[in-house]
Design brief:
With about 425 residues, the chain is α+β, with helices and mostly antiparallel strands. The chain contains 15 helices and 14 strands.
Length: about 425
């Protein structure tokens, strides 16, 4: 096969350089702006920051300290989290795009919609281009008003993440009045049974581990519950052969101390301790992420997180496809020692008659969710001009700082290699 034409190689360079490896950290982006310190703090407390950092092509509707204080007043963290999910749009909007909306109004998906707990249009936000250079935001629920208005652009990494300020929180009907379940109200076994994890629920009751789970909820708890099918899968060990202490360790291995939603798991790089952890490196888990799929690795087997049963601060419950088998209980047995070589009985030395020395031969060489139909009305008047109020930091001047060095080094290496190929040709 002939060498590539230099022009083709140049095109290859351009296509490699076009690969975007931009990453972002929302808390770091907001850190230089004290006006959003309270908003930034709640993104961290609710772990929404991890969810934002694990996604691309989104818009964060930031609230200044006064607006955030009004939203958070007298509400538990789980309610605040759902309200803030409405302020994370799963599409990229900068000031220019806000005024290029088809027909001047649109409904866009938010993080709240991804929870599966937003009936009807509650997980969508209405964006409407108004008269006089204004852009309005409001819940997409029928009858909702555009109570929030675009103020300015705060910062952006083009086409990856845009942070813009709105002057008031977006409130979906009922989102602030929904009762937040307290730790004592959560019936873990009922949730597990409803999710198809009856075997696991039965085991944590009979072993007494349910009491360990319940006592840990107040400070945060995350459960990985194997489905009933997981216990019937080929190769699943016979748990009846475990001692009671071993069974308790196995069940505690399926839980983490602390509230760890899926977004946090996606950004986890280091091994994570479990309730069974009793020493450094003991009974820990590793997390691998491929797109939206999260896999837990034990050192013996791996299991995919299948569904989210509950995500309500301070408790997360997930179902997993397989039983998590810790190496401390199910580590591979050592390889058998090699059998000794057979000892052959000595045989008499043959009588050698004198002969010419043999000629030695040279040794032989060894081979080597579409948006729902809109039920809102388009305001009178044609879309207005783009907003002019922008922050001095609204551009992506510092976007290069958000690009990870290894990815950049990789691009430079590939480019140098390809340029060398062009030169040699």
């Amino acid at each position: 096969m002939g060498a590539l034409h230099p022009l083709h190689l140049l095109c290859l360079i351009l296509s490699v350089l076009a690969i975007t490896t931009t990453a972002h950290n929302i808390t770091a982006m907001l850190a230089p702006f004290p006006d959003y310190s309270l908003f930034n703090s709640y993104l961290s407390q609710t772990k929404l920051a991890d969810e934002i950092n694990s996604r691309q092509t989104l818009t964060v509707l930031a609230l200044n300290n006064a607006a955030m204080s009004a939203l958070a007043a007298k509400h538990p963290l789980s309610v605040i989290k759902n309200a803030l999910r409405l302020h994370v749009l799963l599409d990229y909007y900068d000031p220019q795009k806000l005024h290029q909306i088809s027909k001047g109004t649109t409904l866009t998906t938010t993080l709240y919609q991804t929870t599966g707990n937003a009936p009807g249009n509650l997980g969508f936000v209405n964006i409407t281009d108004l008269k006089g250079g204004k852009v309005g935001f409001g819940s997409a629920a029928p009858g909702s008003k555009l109570d929030s208005t675009y103020t300015k652009s705060v910062k952006s990494i083009p086409y990856n993440i845009s942070v813009i300020e709105i002057d008031a929180p977006i409130i979906a009907p009922g989102i602030l009045t929904a009762p937040a379940p307290s730790a004592s109200d959560v019936n873990i076994t009922a949730l597990l049974e409803k999710a198809g994890c009856k075997t696991f629920a039965s085991l944590i009751i009979s072993s007494g581990v349910i009491k360990v789970y319940q006592s840990a909820i107040e400070k945060g708890l995350t459960l990985f519950a194997p489905s009933d099918m997981a216990f019937k899968a080929p190769g699943t060990p016979d748990l009846s052969k475990l001692t009671n202490a071993e069974l308790v360790s196995l069940l505690q291995y399926h839980a983490l101390t602390g509230y760890t939603p899926i977004g946090t798991l996606k950004t986890t790089k280091d091994p994570i301790s479990t309730l069974a952890t009793n020493g450094a490196g003991k009974y820990d888990l590793r997390v691998e992420t491929a797109g939206d799929e999260v896999t837990l690795k034990t050192g013996v087997d791996s299991s995919r997180i299948a569904t989210t049963v509950l995500d309500s601060t301070p408790l997360c419950i997930f179902t997993v496809d397989s039983l998590l088998l810790p190496a401390e209980l199910f580590g591979k047995s050592p390889s058998p020692a090699p059998a000794p070589e057979p000892v052959s009985s000595p045989s008499p030395a043959p009588v050698v008659s004198p002969s010419p020395a043999p000629i030695s031969e040279a040794p032989a060489s060894v081979a080597s969710p579409p948006a729902p139909p809109m039920e809102t009305q388009t305001p009178e008047g044609a879309p207005s001009d783009a907003p002019t109020a922008t922050s001095e930091n609204a551009t992506s001047d510092n976007a290069a700082a958000d690009v990870k060095a290894p990815a950049f080094a990789f691009l430079v290496t590939v480019s140098a290699t390809v340029l060398g190929s062009i030169w040699l040709s």
